[in-house]
Inverse folding.
């Protein structure tokens, strides 16, 4: 999704035909949990910041395996969040149960084992798919 | 001769009065037309803003301010709502925070790990 998302946004989201959501997958234990919780904590302050943190995490993927809460506080500072409130949200594991439940749901609801996978209007597309496959799926969904 | 002079003076006065009357009346019709056009445009803009508000649910106050600012920037002349950039619209719905048109016909969920 990292490479395809900008094109999806410019060609389909900007025109109002498509909206995007993110569903958490936690394949790397605590490291994944911290990353997922961080965008939820960002979203608590401002829904736009959820997506700013999402974009920042994908562009900083190489740092995430070793990232502790201090790294996430730096990310929060970088995108202009209230770092105290963000730190408190992270320290309290405010969204841990939510991201774990979503991770469980991708198995129970969609039996998704490969990532990234996509759910387009309820239909599962497992594994990374090329942009033209998105175009076809979107056109199908548009009818 | 005197009669002709008086007549020509009266004709001159009449022509002058007619010209003044025409000048005084001329702007009225266009002004009315402009007012009607402006009112219709304003109604259209208000309708457009009303329908935009349907999408505002859950969006930030700052975004609402931006929409208002966009409409007011025309200084009340030919109000035109700002063009919506759906990539800047974020809406909380259920467990997701979506980016894009809340009423988009297609919803894509990215089921991913950040790592």
């Amino acid at each position: 999704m990292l490479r395809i998302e900008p094109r999806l946004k410019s060609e389909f989201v900007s025109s109002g035909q498509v909206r995007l959501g993110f569903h958490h997958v936690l394949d790397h234990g605590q490291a994944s949990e911290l990353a997922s919780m961080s965008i939820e904590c960002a979203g608590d302050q401002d829904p736009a910041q959820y997506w700013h943190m999402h974009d920042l995490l994908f562009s900083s993927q190489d740092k995430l395996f070793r990232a502790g809460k201090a790294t996430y506080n730096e990310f929060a500072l970088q995108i202009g969040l209230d770092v105290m409130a963000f730190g408190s949200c992270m320290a309290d594991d405010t969204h841990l149960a939510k991201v774990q439940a979503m991770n469980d749901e991708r198995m129970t609801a969609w039996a998704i084992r490969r990532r990234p996978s996509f759910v387009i209007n309820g239909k599962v597309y497992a594994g990374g798919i090329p942009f033209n496959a998105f175009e076809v799926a979107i056109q199908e969904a548009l009818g | 001769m005197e009669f002709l002079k008086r007549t020509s003076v009266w004709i001159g006065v009449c022509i002058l009065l007619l010209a003044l009357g025409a000048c005084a009346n001329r702007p009225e019709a266009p002004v009315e037309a402009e007012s009607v056009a402006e009112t219709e445009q304003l109604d259209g803009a208000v309708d457009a803003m009303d329908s935009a508000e349907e999408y505002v649910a859950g969006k930030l106050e700052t975004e609402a301010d931006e929409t208002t600012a966009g409409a007011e920037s025309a200084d009340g002349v030919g109000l035109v709502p700002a063009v919506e950039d759906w990539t800047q619209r974020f809406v909380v719905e259920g467990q997701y925070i979506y980016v894009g048109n809340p009423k988009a016909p297609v919803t894509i969920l990215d089921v991913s790990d950040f790592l």
Chain B has three helices and three strands. The radius of gyration of chain B is 29 Å. The helical segments of chain B are 2-25, 28-53, 61-72. Chain B touches chain A at residues 58-60, 84-88, 90-92, 95-115 (CB under 8 Å).
